[in-house]
Amino acid sequence: MAALWAAGEPLSAAQLQAALDADLAYNTVQTILVRMHDKGLVERRTAGRGHVYWPARDAATAAAEQMRAVLDGPADRQAVLRRFANDLAEDDLAVLRALLHGERPT
Amino acid sequence: MSLAVYLPLLLPVLLAAAARPLTTTAAPERAARALASAAVLSAAVSTASLVLLALTLLDDLPALEAREHTASFPLPEPVPGPLAAAAAAALAWAGWRCAAMLRRNRAVTRDLLAAGTAHDGLLVADLPEAHAVAVPAGIGRPGHVLVTAGLLRLLDRTERTAVLAHEEAHLRHRHHRTVAVAAAAAAVNPLLRPLARVVTLLVERSADEAAATAVGDRGVVARAIAKVALSGGDRPAGGLAAGGSDVVRRVDALTRPVAGRSRRATAGVTAVVITSATAGSTAVADFIAVARAWL
Predict the structure, then answer these.
(1) CB-defined contacts A:B, below 8 A
(2) Considering the entire predicted model, what is its pTM?
(3) Given A68, B12, B159, B165, which is the most exposed site by the fewest CB atoms within 10 A?
């Protein structure tokens, strides 16, 4: 699912298999896609001999609205969130870039 | 009343200072739990101290004044009246803050749950900014990861795996509880706030190392954190930590070789916890003596 979203364009089962980190057989990927399609999580259209798939928007749009509401909420509520990477001060940008490029700030 | 009653109110500051070096050690999970427990212990002891100080207000009641002269137990030396009143006010304030904090936690979880139903532990929100949060498990419901489409597009395959592994580590270790426990302690005793911040950093470090193990490369995790942070999506309105943010500390820790356990730091924290507990039990013993004198 994450890989489909990351692609930003419809993928065939073979393309998705290539994009996945997990070592999954083509048939497994195909089965998962069909199952997700049955659940309404992904949409598909015919392309060539098979289908291409992309994530269904409805649930993600609804989730986006709700998440936006939390993110734009009061600061004390935001502080409760265990976000992946938060709390970056302006001075840190340069330090972070340096670290990324393998230099150690003194 | 001995000076021991005032000590536990100050020890949290020492505890936080002693805990700082632990953030770079290789066992962040254990350190986070130990510190959260220490925070609770410290909050309990300082609360006991406040109760003790506040109860001395009752000393002034005429009945007790009279009793003081006839009591077989000599009452401990008096605590200044205004100080006792301040202690009573602080107690009420602490209780209110703790309740407010718990209410806020519940509200945020409820809001995040309202975002939708996860499939296979993942819910994608179609937002352009890069965010990822772990939504903790509830009664009869497993936890899940809420991630934005923006984050998934920003990162490559292994970095994506790292972020998901990081959030899943939060869920697996129930980090929201560890953090909430420390935050509750800090709500009761504001002097514990630095310690609560160290606990927050430690659970992030723990999840980072879990992610590094999952993808087999600490550099990938460092890169993912930096990319998300630099994308600005996850930047809150107000900066918190002075002298380098948690993000920088995490990336820095990940780009250094795996550190061994710092025995000195562990010893420092242990010493402060023991002192705090001792001072606390002395205070509580005092309290029991007073209570028995009254009864």
Answers:
(1) 177
(2) 0.80
(3) A68
- Please state, in angstroms and rounded to a whole number, the distance separating the CA atoms of residues B143 and B170: 10
- B238-286: per-residue pLDDT in tens? 333 333 578 888 888 888 777 655 666 667 667 767 776 776 677 677 6
Q: With beta carbons under 8 A apart, name residues in chain B contacting A63.
A: 115-116, 123-126, 146
Contact A47, A10 (CB under 8 A): yes
Q: Rounded to a whole number, what is the distance in angstroms from the first to the last CA of chain B?
A: 18
- Sort out which chain A residues have CB atoms less than 8 A from B211's CB and list them: none
Sort out which chain A residues have CB atoms less than 8 A from B257's CB and list them.
Answer: none
Nearest to A61 among B126, B203, B226 (CB): B126
C-beta of residue B65 within 8 angstroms of C-beta of residue B49: no
d(CA A46, nearest CA chain B) in Å: 24
Residue B76 reports pLDDT greater than 60? no
Whether the CB-CB separation of A16 and A3 falls below 8 Å is answered with yes
Rounded to a whole number of angstroms, the distance from the CA of A77 to the nearest CA of chain B is 6
Q: Are B167 and B122 in contact (CB under 8 A)?
A: no
Which ranges constitute the DSSP H helices of B142-231? 149-154, 157-172, 175-188, 193-215, 218-230
Sheet holding B132-135, edge to edge: B122-125, B144-148, B132-135
- Contact check, Cβ <8 Å, A85/B229: yes
A8 to chain B nearest CA, in Å? 7
Q: Which residue has the higher pLDDT, B96 or A17?
A: B96
ipTM: 0.74
Give the best-scoring range by mean pLDDT among A70-79, B8-17, B71-80, B213-222.
B213-222
CB < 8 Å from A in window 165-224 of B: 166-167, 170, 175-176, 179, 203, 222-223
Closest of A8, A16, A21, A50 to residue A32, by C-alpha: A16
Alpha-carbon distance of A15 to B256, in angstroms, equals 36
* Sheet (strand A11-12) strand order: A11-12, A50-55, A42-47
